[in-house]
Specification:
The chain is an all-beta fold. It starts with 5 loop residues before the first strand and ends with a strand. It is 0% helix and 50% strand. It is built from no helices and ten strands. The chain has a four-stranded antiparallel beta sheet with strand order 4-5-6-7, with no helix packed on it. The chain has a three-stranded antiparallel beta sheet with strand order 1-2-3, with no helix packed on it.
């Protein structure tokens, strides 16, 4: 609708609100989320919301309807980025945990 929505993240819940403060979607987590959230536009043109639970070592990508994207959570305990590759028409999530670096292909 070309009007910005608002995303609120607490330690164990995500809430998406319209500009007139109506709840559009929400999700509760068993993991304790870090105070970090970012939106990503994927290769398919859809926007996803990302957050991570450092203590649990889980990364989440959320659909706009508040559901967890298929295939998530994945392992990782740091902030992360999503990169789009026009070469193979895929999105990739890159993150780390300890001394490990992870690169996940996202369908």
């Amino acid at each position: 609708d070309k009007v910005d929505d608002f995303v609120l993240l607490s330690e164990q819940s995500l809430k998406i609100l319209s500009n007139d403060n109506l709840t559009l979607s929400s999700h509760s987590f068993t993991d304790k989320m870090a105070a970090w959230i970012k939106s990503f536009t994927m290769i398919d043109g859809k926007t996803r919301i990302g957050m991570y639970a450092a203590e649990a070592g889980n990364i989440y990508l959320m659909e706009k309807d508040g559901s967890v994207m298929k295939g998530f959570p994945v392992s990782g305990s740091t902030a992360f980025d999503v990169l789009n590759s026009s070469q193979d028409n895929r999105s990739y999530l890159i993150t780390g945990s300890g001394i490990n670096i992870y690169l996940y292909g996202i369908n």
